[in-house]
Each structure stands twice: as structure tokens, then as C-alpha cells.
Description:
Elements: E1 3-8, H1 13-23, E2 28-34, H2 43-46, E3 57-58, E4 66-71, H3 77-88, E5 89-94, H4 104-110, E6 124-126, H5 128-131, E7 140-143, H6 146-160, E8 169-176, H7 191-194, E9 198-202, H8 208-216, E10 221-227, E11 233-240, H9 247-258, E12 264-266, H10 279-282, E13 288-295, E14 300-307, H11 311-326
Helix pairs in contact: 1-11, 6-8, 6-9
The chain binds NADP nicotinamide-adenine-dinucleotide phosphate.
NADP nicotinamide-adenine-dinucleotide phosphate binds next to helix 1 and helix 11.
Amino acid sequence: xxxxxxxxxxxxxxxxxxxxxxxxxxxxxxxxxxxxxxxxxxxxxxxxxxxxxxxxxxxxxxxxxxxxxxxxxxxxxxxxxxxxxxxxxxxxxxxxxxxxxxxxxxxxxxxxxxxxxxxxxxxxxxxxxxxxxxxxxxxxxxxxxxxxxxxxxxxxxxxxxxxxxxxxxxxxxxxxxxxxxxxxxxxxxxxxxxxxxxxxxxxxxxxxxxxxxxxxxxxxxxxxxxxxxxxxxxxxxxxxxxxxxxxxxxxxxxxxxxxxxxxxxxxxxxxxxxxxxxxxxxxxxxxxxxxxxxxxxxxxxxxxxxxxxxxxxxxxxxxxxxxxxxxxxxxxxxxxxxxxxxxxx
Length: 345
Ligand SMILES: NC(=O)c1ccc[n+]([C@@H]2O[C@H](COP(=O)([O-])OP(=O)(O)OC[C@H]3O[C@@H](n4cnc5c(N)ncnc54)[C@H](OP(=O)(O)O)[C@@H]3O)[C@@H](O)[C@H]2O)c1
């Protein structure tokens, strides 16, 4: 093992996934997993899939000195505790939105402001397919949001191949599973209320719109539906290009962007049941599926992207980012497939 790690907020959903990934990672040793409400309980008490781990929750007030601290805490905690986090670890990887945006003005607009705006310049946004070059050596890493990740991965090749310039109309509809609300999800996430729904929970004004606009440089019309899945985010992007686009252009664009990417697969209308990206196919993995279809009659292009919000949308992405930041093999600890067949993810 080369690096020691701690997970703050380890009793939560993404924290549990971080512990799972780091415990199986060839280069990390998990030294600390924090929870205020479950202090001294075993990690397996909160995460039954981790019962074999000999690790107990400790208080986030007593941080051990480690190489990398992963913060999987609700919005606002990291910006309050960032000095303690950085004192405890040379590298901090934050899964919350606290350091994703560039400016205090954006936090004023989309969140409730920011208490440490002077650190926003230092933080490196982690969506490795987009910001890989900036990650090596980064000591404050802001792991990208799940809905933003699904959307950006779907649309990015269109910008890289100049199919989109930024002026075109783009309408994005994301369907998400209930784990996106975290382990402490409220009434809307309780099983009887969530079961069977296709509920527009953020018809407009979802905060991830800010990330998408910041990194792609476009205005997107963005809607999020809560659906009856546990894991997963599925983005459908309706794109209206200015000029004609052929399937050849699209294959060129997507292959050009992703053929060397270890965690992105092109799934675009092949045979079989799973012809387009689907969260079920990537559940439990750090893989994203991306695909597209042309609608020439309506001069529309429809792009699909599917991820597991707990993995490529949070914990997996954070470990991937840490691998790149520390110079570890990018796929270390993340190169495993999912299950098939499997029930609802
Ligand atoms: N869920 C997703 O799909 C997803 C995807 C991308 C990013 N994220 C982001 O990742 C973060 C964690 O999300 P989650 O879904 O894992 O949330 P969660 O399940 O609610 O877990 C939150 C964790 O933080 C701990 N915590 C809460 N307040 C704290 C404080 N003041 N100090 C220290 N620890 C505190 C909680 O445990 P104790 O209260 O016992 O300490 C718990 O372990 C959030 O910022 C979220 O926006 C989530």
C-alpha cells in the first residue's frame, strides 16, 4: 500500500462506496471512516456489504493524519471544515458541491453563498475525461456532480468535434435514482412515496445546471425526474444543431473523444436489448455509457448517457480523480464489471 486514506461522512451512501472502493484498492489503506451518529460502531453496521472490514466509525472531530482525505459530507460542511481537512491530509478530495464552481457570484446565485471563496481558484474540478490535465499534483479536488457528469459526458464530444458551438438549443432531461438524495433522504425519498414514481423533482433551476454551463460554456434547459431506481442517472439530451449532421460525423466525434477512455463506452443502437445507454447496465461500476441517435425530420440529435450516481457520479469518480492526482494507474481499484442479470439497480 502506498497511500493512507480517510473518509469523512463514511456512514452515508457515497462514503460507504468510497470505503468499499478504497478497501479493494491496491494503493490505498483506509485508516479512518467517520460518522458522528454511528461513532464506535463497525462500518458493517451501516454498510452490510462491508461487514468483513475490521474498521469502526470514529468522530470527524478527531481526524487522523493521512495522505488523502475524502469528504463525503453534505453541502456546506467542507467549506466550513476545509482547514482541518487540509491539516490532516496532503490531498483533499471533496464529493460535495462546495468547491466545484469558479466564483463566489455563482455560489450566491445557485447556493447560499460561500464562506471560503478565496479557495475556489485552487480547487480542481474532477471529471477526468474533461480535466485530466489539471489533476496531477492537485491537492484540493472537487469531484463532479452526478447529473452534471452524465450530461457533460453526453455532450462533450459534440463540442470537441465542433458539432456544437454553444449557441444551439440544448434540452436535457435526467432521470435519477433515490440514492441521489443520500442516506438521510427526506419524506420524498421514503420507500412508499418513492416507489413507482416518475416525478419531476427539479423541473427548472437544478444546481447542476451551473456546473454544466461552467464547463461546456452553454445554456442548457435542464430538468430532473426522480424515478423508481435505487442507483443510476440517465441523461437524455435533445440537441438542435445549426447545420446538417450525419451519423458518420457523430461516430467520429464520439470515437474521437472516448476511444481511449477507460471508463466511457459507446453504446449507440447496436443489437440486443441494451441498445442505448442504461443505468442498469453500469450499476456498481465506474463506467459511463454514452450513445446517440439522429432525428433528421426534426433536425434533432438525441444523446443518451447513463452512469451509476454512486460510482461514476461520486465515489468512483473521486477515486479515479485521486488516482490521476497522485500519479497512480488510472484504473487502479476501479477496473471491475457489473452484474448481469440484475434486479432494479
Ligand atoms: N448521493 C449521490 O448520488 C451523490 C452524488 C454526487 C455527489 N454527492 C455529494 O456527496 C456528498 C455526500 O452525499 P451522500 O449521498 O453520501 O450523503 P449522505 O448519505 O446523507 O451522507 C452524509 C454523511 O456525512 C456525515 N455528516 C453529516 N453532517 C456532517 C458534519 N457536519 N460533519 C461531518 N460529517 C457529517 C453523515 O454522517 P453523520 O451525520 O453520522 O456524521 C454521513 O456519513 C453530498 O455533498 C452530496 O451532494 C452525492
